[in-house]
Every structure is written in structure tokens, then in C-alpha cells.
């Protein structure tokens, strides 16, 4: 089938109808930079003075130097000089203002050394060490790193060859900018430094003199323009990784969904993300290249893009609250499309022949389930990306546990929606108060919530699956699907769409009837079977809250919660009914009550998914889940479980006992004051612990000469970092006292080191929570 490409003659594209460019605001530069400066005799004093001026001018366009608690968009600058050896003149935390930078850089580069030898490898190695040690345990680990080399000569070969060190840096994600201070003028140094520089980041002080500052600044801005993990940066040429890059990131998603669900799923993948826009042929072809090189996409290629019909005008999807741009200038419709139909209001790309090319076809908003491509803005000087967002995405993509030597924090609850293992009943109001249009948004919400790869149904070979039941209610409740009916996402999608197609012809809406039906389903289908250890959740979609006596929803909600069921509520308020959210909060589990907002539906999906993930994060019997506040059971929970043991033992015996209690269990760690205090609260509230409180924890001294925290068998022990909670006078020499216990001192406890095999005390064990990353079998 032929495609229709239309370019309106004599017109130019609207300036706003172009893809976003990388940020160029040097005042908002956020990098970690090390200047590596040759101060051998060959550089000359004049050359050093010029370099000092160059460095200071590069950062004089308003760039914030140092770190600021209230402003993340800052740049740290370190300084290394080298000749036969390297010297660290300034670590990454020394300069806390532009004045600091000026004063110290000009002082440190005031005169050359007495050495004629110049080994760049030593300077690069010093920069490598500086990055390694000064990004450890900081909140800047997601900041991009840059080395700026100012060299007067290039010595290669043998142990002093700079190329291996440069390659290590670049492989670790560091960009290298080189500036050749060529003493001979033959251009050889520029060519030599090109080997170690990142592509296109190789400059000379003699080439286009006066532009070196701008070239270095542009290279830093380009470095500060990047995509989150799992996203691909849009560039001018897919096959040329060094071609011009846009401030746009793409992600191909191989989880089939209808267009509406795909739109909502994209909105939840990153801040300000949406279904992909194709403003021109170049972008269209690039998206196809991404699809061709993504697993889970197969010929004939078929995938949603962001084009949709709004008020009779074709528009491109945008983040909630942003204006959607009208389709302009260039079209890629397949022949015969768009078909005029009030129901065919969304668009996908479809391959129609053996030639690998795709064209647009308009489709039904809800019916056609295919893969899709999302788009978001790159992280750059106009768009700061926080470490917490990076952490959540990395956890979702890689399944990383945070309790590791690289991240001194406690393990979070699992976030892998593809491994959700729950029994869930959807309780949907289908009265006239909800109305048909709102029912369709409920349908889209449900499909988006479970459309991130969650396995629906029962799989005898894989335990991490979720069963979905469906109840609709108005004056009475109807069981549309029990917990055994849907055995795939496609089955669930078809069944839910069919059951929620139209609102019924009654204005009566009694939530109590829907909750009672859900309660019966759990009692009959989730108890005394192979899934009785699975956590259960009810998701309520309601347009009003009413009923008293037998129709009061609160008593049945309380029964459900007392039996261990979590209730998530979604308020779809009618005009003039501002109290619905507050009313539903009475029946919801703490923190699980939400309100639909037509401008923030992507966050609405994420809130419900987050509640499901929290429901799927729990501890085995007799273990206590570590949370942000001991006194607030509704506070944020970690993927860590604590068990106090009231059988006194030596430290070594306690360690062995803990490791045998569960898979992945060990003596408790105390990475923070909060965790230390939480464990003390647990001890205070456990029968068998009494003042003065004394109990073993997992800190111990190892032969390598450092204090470390025990970890589950097979995992690397975690080196001790601040905060330290030693009692005064501790630690004592560790040769015979290499274990640690908590000893009460005043109103709290502190650490003191003891022998590993003498002295018997209570102890506290720790293990992983049961969650999407850690399936727990029935006990």
C-alpha cells in the first residue's frame, strides 16, 4: 500500500513545530569537571597563564560553582597538574564559588614546574581516582563527568601511555575534552590528542583563536544533555552516534496496549513523557530504526505514535496540561487514510509490505493493542533530573537491591510490575453518576495499571502472577469475572472493556454491595488454596459515597482490612461533590486514597501502581517491616524485615542463627540513625528485651582492616560509612574485640565492640521483604 507524503509547497515549518534541542543555559550547568593541566617546562609560564584564564572564563557565564543544598544545578570543578608526576591541587569540593575558582586556579597555575617531562597518563589517572572517591556515597552519582585536558606534548607507549587510562574513563561514562597548546605549530599534538578525546571534543588554542572558550563550553553543554537509563537519545543519524543530538529521548515498549492505555503508560514512565511525536520524515525514520533494533518488536512492525484526533483536528500527544500541537506540513498517512470515522481517533505506524517502511493508520482509541514508543525531554540545563527518579528507573530496569557497597541505603520495596504477585478485585461503579465517558477513563486506567507487563492469571511454572476479578455495582453488585476467569492480559483487557462499555440506567450507587461481593470472592477463591499466602487488594472506582445501615460501606471495608486486604480508592467526583475523596479515604488503607484529575491521569496510574507494589511488599510471619517511622504504621516502608531474638548467644552464634532463619537473612545493619532508632524501638517493644538494652548487630571487623556490615551468604559485606554511633571510648583495639553490639546509654543505645565468641546477649536479625523482586513461598 502506498503512503501519502505531503509537504505544503512554499511554507516553512512553524518554529514551535520542531523537536526540542539540548539546553544551552550555562548558568544551569550541572556537571562534575576535573581540569587536567600540563605544568611541565614545555607549557611555559605564559601558556599556564592563558590556561588559567581559559578555565576561569569557561565557567564565568553564570555557572554555579560548588554544591548548594537548595540548588541541584551546580558544577563542581577539580584541578590536577602533571609533569613527570601528577598532583591533586583541588578536589571536587574545594571550590564553592567562582571567586574560589579564580583565586586558586591562578595561584596554582602561576608558574611551571622544574620538570621537562610531561606524562599525561599520570594526570588522567589522578582525575580517575578523584572521580572514584569523591562521587562515592554522594547524591551526585547521576551527574555527568568531564575531564578537560590542557597539554603541551604527548608521550605515548609503555606504562606511561595515556590511551588505556583515557579509554577506561570514557568506558565509565566520562567525556574527555582536549585542548592542544601546540608549541611547534605543526598540528601534530592536536592529532595525537584526538585519540584520547571524546568524538568532536578535540580543540587547539591556535585553531580559531578566541573560540576555544566557546568550543569547551559547547562540549560541556553537550555532555550535560543525556537520557535516563533505558531511553535512547534522538539524533540526526541513527547509525552515526556522533551526529547532532536533540534534547529528546525515546523508549520503545514491547508490551501491547490499546492507544489510550499506551498514552497513559507513557505518561507514567518519566517526568513529562508522552507518546512519540513524528514532526518530519527524519524523526519518523529514526523511530522505525529504534523499533527495528528493540527486542519484542517483529515484522510486520506495528506500533502506536502520539497522533490523535481532538475536536476534529489531528494533534500530537503532550504531557498533561501542555498544549497539543496541531499536525502540520508533513504527513505520512497510508493510502486511504485517515478514514473518516468518529471512533477511529488514534494513530499507529503500520508496515504494509516487505520493504521496511511504515505509514500512519487511524484506529479505535480502545480496541487495537500493539507495542508503542514513548518520548520525553532529555536531562540537560533546562531539565534537571533527580537522583531519586534515576534510582527508581534503575530499580525497575535492572532489579538492583540498594543494600550494597555502592549505595549505603536500605533495600527498597521491589518495583517490577511485571513480577507483581497479588489477588486483586476491581470494584467499579457503573451507575449514571459515573456515566459512560468516565467509565471509559476507568477502563483506560485499569488497563494502564496492569499494562506494564504484569502477568495475569495462574501459571504453574511461575509464581509471580496476579489474578484479577471484576465487580460492577450500582443499586446492586454484579460479579463480572471471578479470580479464575482472566488468564492473560488480553483476556482481562477484552473482558474489562466489554463489562465497562456503558453505564447502567440507574442513579443509585451503593459501594457496600460491591465491597461485599469482593469479600465473598476472596473468602471463596483466595483462602485455603495454593495462593492463600498471596496478598489481596481491592481497587474501588467510585463516583459517589452513600449508604447507611446495611448499605453503609464502612463496616465491610473494616472487615476486609482486618482480614489483611488492602483497599485502594479512586474518586471520580461528580460536579458539586467535593467531599467524595474525603469520604472514600475512610474506607481506604492508609495512604491509598486518590482522586482522578483529568490533567494528571498519568500520575493517577502511577499512584495506584505504587499502592499495589506497597501491598506486594510485606514480611513473613514473626518479622517486622522496617519503615520510616516506628510510631506511624502508614509511613514509607522499606524492603527489609526485622526480627528480635530473645535467646542469648555469642555474636558468632547469633550471626549463624540469623543466616539460617530465612533466605537472604543476616544480623541487622544500621546504615542510618533512623534504622538504629527503629531497631531500638523494636527491642523496647519486644517481650524478653529489658533495660539496660543489649543486643548484637551485624557490624564486625575483618582482616583487611575495616569495619563492615554482615550480608546474606554469598553477598559482599558492606564497608562502614557515616553516621557512626560508637559509645565514648569505642571502638577499642579490634584484634580481640571484632564484633559489635548495641548497649543502652541514657535514653538511647550506642555501639561497643566485643569478642565474637564470648558474652551472650539477645540479637536482631534482618532479611529481605517479600516483594516483586523476592517471591516468598507459603510458610
UniProtKB/TrEMBL annotation:
Pfam families tied to this protein: VWA
One of the GO BP terms on file: innate immune response
Domain C-type lectin: 245-375, 637-766
Highest taxon above the source species: Eukaryota
Signal peptide extent: none
InterPro entries membership: C-type_lectin-like, C-type_lectin-like/link_sf, CTDL_fold, VWF_A, vWFA_dom_sf
Domain named VWFA: residues: 32-220, 423-612
Protein name according to UniProt: Uncharacterized protein
Amino acid at each position: 500500500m502506498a503512503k501519502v507524503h505531503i509537504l505544503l509547497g512554499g511554507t516553512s515549518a512553524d518554529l514551535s513545530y520542531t523537536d526540542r534541542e539540548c539546553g544551552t543555559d550555562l548558568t544551569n550547568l550541572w556537571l562534575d569537571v576535573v581540569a587536567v593541566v600540563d605544568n611541565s617546562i614545555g607549557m611555559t609560564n605564559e601558556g599556564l597563564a592563558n590556561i588559567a584564564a581559559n578555565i576561569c572564563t569557561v565557567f564565568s557565564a553564570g555557572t554555579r560553582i560548588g554544591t548548594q543544598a537548595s540548588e541541584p544545578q551546580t558544577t563542581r570543578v577539580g584541578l590536577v597538574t602533571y609533569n613527570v608526576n601528577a598532583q591533586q591541587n583541588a578536589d571536587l569540593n574545594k571550590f564553592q564559588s567562582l571567586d574560589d575558582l579564580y583565586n586558586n586556579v591562578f595561584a596554582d597555575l602561576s608558574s611551571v614546574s622544574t620538570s621537562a617531562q610531561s606524562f599525561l597518563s599520570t594526570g588522567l589517572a589522578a582525575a580517575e581516582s578523584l572521580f572514584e572517591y569523591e562521587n562515592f556515597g554522594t547524591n551526585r552519582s547521576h551527574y555527568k563527568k568531564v575531564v578537560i585536558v590542557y597539554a603541551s606534548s604527548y608521550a605515548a607507549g609503555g606504562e606511561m601511555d595515556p590511551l588505556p587510562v583515557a579509554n577506561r574513563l570514557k568506558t565509565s561514562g566520562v567525556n574527555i575534552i582536549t585542548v592542544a597548546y601546540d608549541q611547534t605549530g605543526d598540528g601534530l599534538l592536536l592529532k595525537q590528542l584526538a585519540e584520547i578525546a571524546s568524538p568532536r571534543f578535540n580543540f587547539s588554542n591556535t585553531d580559531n583563536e578566541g573560540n576555544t572558550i566557546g568550543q569547551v563550553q559547547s562540549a560541556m553543554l553537550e555532555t550535560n544533555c543525556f537520557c535516563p537509563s533505558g531511553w535512547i537519545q534522538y539524533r540526526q543519524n541513527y547509525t552515526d552516534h556522533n551526529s547532532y543530538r536533540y534534547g529528546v529521548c525515546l523508549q520503545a515498549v514491547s508490551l501491547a496496549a490499546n492507544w489510550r492505555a499506551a498514552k497513559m503508560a507513557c505518561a507514567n514512565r518519566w517526568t513529562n513523557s508522552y507518546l512519540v511525536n513524528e514532526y518530519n520524515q527524519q524523526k519518523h525514520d529514526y523511530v522505525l530504526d529504534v523499533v527495528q533494533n528493540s527486542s519484542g518488536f517483529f515484522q510486520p512492525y506495528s506500533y502506536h505514535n502520539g497522533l490523535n484526533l481532538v475536536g476534529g483536528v489531528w494533534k500530537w500527544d503532550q504531557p498533561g496540561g501542555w498544549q497539543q500541537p496541531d499536525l502540520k506540513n508533513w504527513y505520512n498517512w497510508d493510502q486511504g487514510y485517515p478514514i473518516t470515522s468518529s471512533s477511529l481517533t488514534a494513530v499507529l505506524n503500520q508496515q504494509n509490505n516487505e520493504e521496511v517502511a511504515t505509514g500512519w493508520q487511524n484506529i479505535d482509541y480502545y480496541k487495537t493493542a500493539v507495542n508503542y514508543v514513548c518520548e520525553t525531554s532529555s536531562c540537560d540545563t533546562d531539565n534537571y533530573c533527580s537522583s531519586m527518579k534515576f534510582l527508581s528507573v534503575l530499580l525497575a530496569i535492572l532489579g538492583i537491591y540498594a543494600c550494597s557497597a555502592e549505595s549505603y541505603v536500605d533495600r527498597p520495596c521491589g518495583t517490577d510490575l511485571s513480577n507483581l504477585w497479588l489477588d486483586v478485585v476491581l470494584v467499579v461503579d457503573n451507575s449514571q453518576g459515573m456515566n459512560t465517558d468516565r467509565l471509559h477513563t476507568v477502563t483506560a486506567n485499569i488497563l494502564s495499571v496492569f499494562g506494564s507487563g504484569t502477568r495475569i492469571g495462574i501459571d504453574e511454572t511461575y509464581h509471580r502472577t496476579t489474578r484479577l476479578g471484576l465487580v460492577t455495582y450500582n443499586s446492586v453488585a454484579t460479579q463480572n469475572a471471578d479470580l479464575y476467569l482472566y488468564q492473560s492480559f488480553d483476556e482481562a483487557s477484552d473482558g474489562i472493556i466489554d463489562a465497562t462499555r456503558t453505564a447502567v440506567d440507574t442513579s443509585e450507587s451503593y459501594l457496600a454491595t460491591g465491597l461485599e461481593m469482593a469479600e465473598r470472592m476472596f473468602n471463596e477463591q483466595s483462602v485455603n488454596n495454593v495462593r492463600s499466602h498471596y496478598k489481596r487488594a481491592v481497587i474501588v472506582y467510585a463516583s459517589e459515597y452513600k449508604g447507611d445501615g446495611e448499605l453503609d460501606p464502612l463496616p465491610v471495608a473494616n472487615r476486609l482490612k482486618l482480614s489483611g486486604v488492602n483497599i485502594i480508592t479512586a474518586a471520580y467526583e461528580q460536579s458539586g461533590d467535593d467531599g467524595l475523596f474525603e469520604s472514600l479515604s475512610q474506607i481506604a488503607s492508609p495512604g491509598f486514597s486518590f482522586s482522578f484529575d483529568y490533567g494528571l491521569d498519568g500520575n493517577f496510574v502511577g499512584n495506584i501502581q505504587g499502592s499495589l507494589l506497597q501491598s506486594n511488599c510485606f514480611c513473613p510471619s514473626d518479622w517486622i517491616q522496617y519503615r520510616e517511622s516506628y510510631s506511624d504504621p502508614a509511613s514509607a516502608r522499606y524492603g527489609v524485615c526485622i526480627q528480635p531474638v530473645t535467646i542469648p548467644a555469642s555474636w558468632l552464634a547469633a550471626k549463624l542463627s540469623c543466616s539460617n532463619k530465612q533466605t537472604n537473612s543476616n544480623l541487622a545493619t544500621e546504615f542510618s540513625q533512623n534504622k538504629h532508632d527503629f531497631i531500638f524501638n523494636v527491642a523496647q517493644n519486644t517481650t524478653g528485651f529489658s533495660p539496660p538494652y543489649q543486643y548484637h548487630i551485624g557490624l564486625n571487623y575483618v582482616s583487611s582492616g575495616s569495619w563492615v556490615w554482615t550480608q546474606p551468604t554469598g553477598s559482599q559485606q558492606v564497608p562502614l560509612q557515616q553516621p557512626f554511633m560508637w559509645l565514648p571510648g569505642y571502638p577499642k583495639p579490634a584484634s580481640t574485640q571484632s564484633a559489635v553490639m548495641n548497649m543502652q546509654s541514657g535514653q538511647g543505645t550506642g555501639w561497643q565492640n566485643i569478642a565474637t565468641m564470648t558474652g551472650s546477649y539477645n540479637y536482631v536479625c534482618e532479611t529481605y521483604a517479600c516483594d516483586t523482586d523476592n517471591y516468598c513461598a507459603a510458610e
